[in-house]
# Entry
Amino acid sequence: MTEKKPDTEAAFKRFKELLDAKIHIYMNACVHCGLCADTCHYSLANPDDIEMIPAFKINKITSFYRRYHTVLGKLIPFWTGARKLDENYAKELVDTAFGKCTMCGRCGINCSIGLNAGQLMRAARTALVEAGLVPDSLQATVDNAVKTGNNMAITEKDFVDTIEWLQEDLQMELKDDKVKLPINKQGADIMYTLNPREPKFFPLSISAMGKVFHAAGENWTFSSKNYDVTNYALFSGNDREALEISIRLVDEAKQLGVKKIVLAECGHGFRATRWELANWKKEKLDIEIVSVLELMAEYIKTGRLELDPSKNKERVTLHDPCNLVRNGGIIEEQRYILKKAVNDFVEMIPNRAQNFCCGGGGGMLAMGEYSDRRKKAGKIKADQIKATGAKVVATPCHNCIDQLTELNTLYNLGVKIKTVSEVLAEAIVFDK
# Structure
């Protein structure tokens, strides 16, 4: 992190702006029962470290609130643990809010009083933005998106070249020149987005969606300029930059004259664009935005895809991305798709909203300074995967794929990590 004097006055001012009725309640609500300790992957992976317990982390956030908003905190701060928001305390908050929590929200749904710790952590991150204390590695990812249109700074020429190469490859594989990966097609029914890691490192997931769209007879397009479904400003806490990044997809869709935006398999990207964008913009969006999981499930239900599940012979399990499932509401669609596309599907225990974070959320994968904590916290997920006996782990999120790929090596899981569309594409019958 850049060594500079943090602007704690600006951070305090911003935090006061965030103090709506809900945050006020959260700040006073924790009863320190400790139930949250058994719900947090950080706490479970570090049972001897009290600072990893969500209640401890909440107390860290609320100590300066008590200093300025409670009578005892003002009169006898030493007795109540209330602290001023000074430079040292602000740096401690960075370690807590960015380095010890993925804002996955699992502790919140198991809290005896419903306290949403993830929302408090993001409020702390939002205040720390004003102090200039966002970790440099995370801010660099946001800066790439703001300055270039995508978080990996891929040039438009390189993106177009990659898509054209993939189209040629797909036409050869399917022996069909009609297979297209259209770019900037005016008036298409849908605009499909991508995680920039797909053209950079995971082109097979693009090819998989090309197969799905071709088999379904979809009228679709990419944008060559604004296709990035990710939004790391959701994690940095900077609402201004978050709005700037996500609104581009809406503006581009209108420019192309499409009817609908379809968000690729990305947990936080779905949450940012489908749910948070309207809050950042402070008005209802006037274009339909859906997850590609909803679309693929619809294709199957309406008979637009013919599937042969025997093409996927190995046991498949599913990892639920926190921001898509627990915080996004897309829960059953991926299960419906996998049950139609494979012969042997098995759930992790626990699953759905109770599923554990893989450890890669909250911007953790972008912050190398916390990588040891991230991988240690991932032990909980690794144990879940082992217990299923699955050979394939499907997950609709590239952040999760990156984390699960590291866990696969670190904990000797011996599994293949795939997107849901990759599994679905394998089951499609093209020769009807």
Observations:
- The two ends are 57 Å apart (CA to CA).
- The mean pLDDT is 96.
